[in-house]
Amino acid sequence: MIRLKVIGTEWEVVSRLTGLKSNSSDENWKVTYITPVYGGWDLVAECTFTKLQELDKIVTFIRVDKDLSSWIEETTTLVSSKPDYPR
Q: What's the structural domain count of the chain?
């Protein structure tokens, strides 16, 4: 879940995160879906990963990327515990 500090940058964030994935052969994480939403949050992003450390890489990228960090005010991470969720 992503809350923006700069309203109107929804599609820039979508563009930046669409297709984001690991470049390392020993990791298997990627952003699978991102879209603007209405309500208390501005965007919802879905990602898949095989190790919890990979989730940390995704969240850290969002928080430290120069453009993203200037557009995003807050993130909240929700983790599904279902191991066989369809990808």
A: 1
What is the span of the domain harbouring residue 8? 2-75
Q: What is the pLDDT of residues 49-69, one digit of tens each?
A: 988 899 998 999 888 999 999
Q: Residue 7: left (phi > 0), alpha (psi -120 to 50), or beta?
A: beta
Whether residue 83 is contained in a domain is answered as no
Residue with tokens 């599609």: 11
CB within 8 Å of 52: residues ≥ 6 apart: none
pTM, two decimal places: 0.84
